[in-house]
Amino acid sequence: MGFKCGIVGLPNVGKSTLFNALTQTSAAQAANYPFCTIEPNVGDVGVPDPRLDVLASIAGSQQIIPTRLTFVDIAGLVKGASKGEGLGNQFLANIRETDAIAHVVRCFEDGDITHVSGKIDPLSDIEVIETELMLADLDALEKRQPAAEKKGKQGDKDQKELADLMMRALVLLREGKPARITERTADEEKIFQGLGLLSSKPVLYVCNVEEGAADKGNEFSERVKAFAKSEGNVAVVVSAKIESEIALMAQSDQKDFLDAVGLAEPGLNRVIRAGYELLGLFTYFTVGPKEARAWTITQGTKAPAAAGVIHTDFEKGFIRSETIAYDDYVAGNGEAGSKLAGKFRLEGKEYVVADGDVMHFRFNT
What pTM was estimated for this model as a whole? Predict the structure, then answer.
């Protein structure tokens, strides 16, 4: 399953520095969290998960394979992008192909790095990008909605439902509100996602702060956090400069450096996990002597569909899943101990997989 998180931001906010740090970090890491550059601006990164290392240690796994998330470094945006200014068309096309947005916001003062608007105001920066996304959506829907409405009046039920849904989004966009807050039913969700609206995507705000504020943030990042909370989104504090330094260090040197700057882990780990959680993704594990592996699923996934992530034949011929909760697997020191403790379960087709489940699938070929 491929999930893409687009990294966006105004010029000179640290967007590309952050992406480059992601690239360098993963290239320098051990095989646990490999990174491969698919294109110059696209990177596939392992999601850090300490549970995977614990499971591998218990099972004596030869290889550790994390679940993955793709980050896309999208061309810098300027005001007027929705009308084609700068690299506007490319920016909007690239963002449409992502599942979520990681919006890097400048939250630091530096006289040597010019801000595009001449002042440090993170909420204003957020508004610029959000406005461009909404204007692009408004333009697209105003062109599409009348045709769907006309067909609906002629008796096409599907087009009528589509026109109604688009009108709900249009009302919000005309009020300066993002399409993501459009009310829709569960049945309408797939149709809504099919509209490809830029302002419908979930947003993770990445507050790029100065080195001294990397642990707790600053006044600027606090404003962004408060704004994100009001929207139901998330904000993460990082110092792109520090992350760039960490990325070039040997693993053995990183802990001392992190301790010195007051960080428990690299900020990029938080960005990766927050992006993963923002997309509503869960992880389950398969564990054995050969490998310990994490697999990505969405919330509410049932056992057959989870098996299908490994191979479509697993879903088609699904019989049952042998399941142990992560905590039970650790407490039992593996499968044998978990069975003795009565924590080994056989689950059928209706079982909804829980985050951290250790699973083995039985299926007909």
Answer: 0.79
For 305, the token pair is 């569909």
Q: Which tens digits make up the pLDDT trace of 80-96? A: 544 554 444 556 777 88
The model's confidence at residue 36, banded by pLDDT at 50, 70 and 90, is very low
CA 41, 292, 99, 238 torsion-angle sign: negative
Pairing state between β 291-298 and 63-65: parallel
Q: With the C-alpha atoms ordered 273, 274, 276, 277, is the resulting torsion angle positive or negative?
A: positive
Q: What share of the chain is helix, strand, coil (3-state, %, to 5)?
A: 45, 20, 35
**How far apart (Å, rounded) are the C-alpha atoms in residues 278 and 101?**
9
Cα separation, 28 vs 92, whole angstroms: 32
Helical ranges in the chain per DSSP H: 15-28, 50-59, 88-96, 122-153, 157-174, 189-194, 219-231, 240-247, 251-260, 267-278, 303-310, 312-316, 326-331, 335-340
228 vs 232, residue with greater confidence: 228
CA distances from 229 to 113, 173, 235 (A): 29, 21, 8
- The alpha carbon torsion through 105, 99, 80, 181 (nearest 10 deg) reads -90
Please tell me which of 70-74, 132-136, 174-178, 259-263 the model is most confident about, judged by mean pLDDT: 174-178
Q: Does residue 236 contact residue 274 with C-beta atoms inside 8 Å?
A: yes
Residue 72: which residues within 8 A CB-CB, separation 6 or more? 4, 5, 6, 7, 41, 42, 94, 97, 98
- pLDDT value of position 210: 92
CA distance 262 to 241: 15
126-144 pLDDT per residue, tens: 998 898 889 889 988 999 9
> How open is the CA angle 301-346-328, to the nearest 5 degrees?
85
Please report, for residues 31, 41, 143, 340, 348, the alpha-carbon distance to residue 245 in angstroms, rounded to integers and kept in the order given: 20, 20, 48, 48, 48
Residues 21 and 7: beta-carbon distance below 8 Å: no
H or E element in which residue 292 lies = strand 291-298
Q: Cβ distance 158 to 147 under 8 Å?
A: no
Q: Own/partner pairs for 144-150, CB < 8 Å, 24+ apart? A: 145/170
> Token pair of 194, please?
């099919």
